[in-house]
Write a structure and sequence with these properties.
Elements lengths: L4 E5 L3 E4 L4 H13 L4 E4 L10 H12 L8 E7 L6 H9 L5 E4 L24 H10 L3 E3 L13 H16 L5 E3 L5 H9 L4 E5 L1 H5 L23 H12 L5 E3 L8 H4 L15 H11 L6 H7 L13 E10 L3 E2 L2 E2 L6 E6 L2
Parallel strand pairs: 2-3, 3-4, 4-5, 5-6, 6-7, 7-8, 8-9
Antiparallel strand pairs: 1-10, 10-13, 11-12
This protein binds (4S)-2,6-dioxohexahydropyrimidine-4-carboxylic acid and zinc ion.
Zinc ion (ZN) binds next to loops.
GO molecular function: dihydroorotase activity; zinc ion binding
Family: Belongs to the metallo-dependent hydrolases superfamily. DHOase family. Class II DHOase subfamily.
Subunit structure: Homodimer.
């Protein structure tokens, strides 16, 4: 018999972009309405959150919009080639940030994704920072995609596993690592099997679409994000790890709002998919399709929360079978699967 409702602890978004200013005012309510206890806030603003002062000020701007909500904005540091290990540790010890986000850029200063141009160009040069992070157990949240121009777009993740991730794990066996928005089945095998304190976040959209979705019916920017969705075999492999209840995988939406004007331009379409308004329902639908609703709670609300200094919530939320029509837009931002019907509804 199929369940008609699922009750699980309130969840936590392990990877979220809420931007700043007017855009933040527009998109933050979507996550609050989804009953998240908090989120790992991505630091890739136009002026990246790369110092203690900037992180504190950004957290204050977020808090000012919370209006009594208990939502915990967990700040992250945008790692650059310049910050020294002492500031990284100090920001962590003072409770300003809970983790460090690694974006990489190539020698021309081109990053692989939105807001990554200020990212690390010299990974080896950051090893003293990783050493300090290992000592203080500061999690490294990695955007693992090779940024060299000659790497095939669809292989960027697995190439980065070999070039960047493996040497880091070997050099810092005690460094906690989160592999962000994992998309490649080979990377999933690696994360599942390697003997290391490593976990991975997985987005709702990468569980649902493969690369065809970017091209079906003409080029479709609403399904374009980084890492780009991969071929079907990879999507299926990643999804199998997730819905079979492997505890190394947890929900991180990577919900990444862009105004429609920058998503729909022909040249230089921005990467990012906005899923916040229905993230819980999208994940629920995915687990239900795989007859795996018993694993939904751990994935959304439990797995590796302690890594971020969060506890499993003692409050619950309920998702019921029923028809939810995904809104087309929130402000000027197109919503993933806008207009489609989802057979689940978060009701309280
Ligand atoms: O698609 C993406 N959009 N991937 C990222 O890594 C960044 C994000 C954004 O900030 O828009
Ligand atoms: Zn992201």
């Amino acid at each position: 018999m199929k369940e008609n409702s699922v009750t699980i602890p309130r969840w936590f978004d392990r990877h979220l972009h809420i931007r700043d200013g007017e855009m933040m005012k527009t998109v933050l309510p979507s996550t609050l309405n989804q009953r998240a206890t908090g989120a790992i806030i991505m630091p890739n603003l136009a002026d990246p959150i790369s110092t203690i002062e900037k992180a504190k000020a950004y957290r204050d701007r977020i808090t000012a919009l919370l209006d009594g909500s208990d939502f915990v904005p967990c700040m992250t540091l945008y790692l650059t080639d310049h910050i020294d290990p002492e500031e990284v540790v100090r920001g962590f010890e003072e409770g300003v940030w809970r983790a460090v986000k690694l974006y990489m850029a190539n020698q021309k200063g081109h990053g692989g994704t939105t807001g990554s141009a200020h990212g690390v160009k010299n990974l080896l040069g950051r090893y003293p920072v990783f050493e300090a992070m290992e000592k203080h157990k500061i999690p490294l949240l990695g955007h693992f995609e090779a940024v060299e121009e000659d790497v095939d777009e669809f292989d960027r993740e697995i190439v980065s596993v070999d070039r960047d991730l493996k040497p880091i794990l070997k050099s810092f066996p005690g460094l906690p690592v989160v592999f962000e928005h994992l998309t490649d089945g080979r990377a999933a095998d690696f994360v599942a099997e390697v003997d290391h304190d490593i976990h991975a976040t997985v987005t709702a959209h990468h569980l649902m679409i493969n690369r065809n979705a970017m091209f079906w019916g003409g080029m479709n920017p609403s399904n374009y994000c980084k890492p780009v969705p991969k071929r079907e075999t990879h999507r299926a492999k990643v999804r199998q790890y997730v819905t079979s209840g492997n505890r190394r995988f947890g929900a991180g939406t990577d919900s990444a709002p862009h105004d429609e004007s920058v998503k729909s331009r022909c040249y230089g379409c921005a990467a990012g998919i906005f899923t916040s308004p229905t993230a819980v329902e999208l994940y629920t639908m995915t687990f239900d399709e795989d007859n795996a609703l018993e694993h939904l709670g751990p994935f959304l609300s439990e797995n590796f929360l302690a890594l971020y200094g969060m506890e499993v919530s003692s409050e619950t939320m309920m998702i019921e079978r029923g028809t939810l029509v995904v809104p087309q837009k929130v402000g000027g931002v197109q919503v993933f699967k806008g207009g489609a019907e989802i057979p689940w509804k978060l009701v309280g």
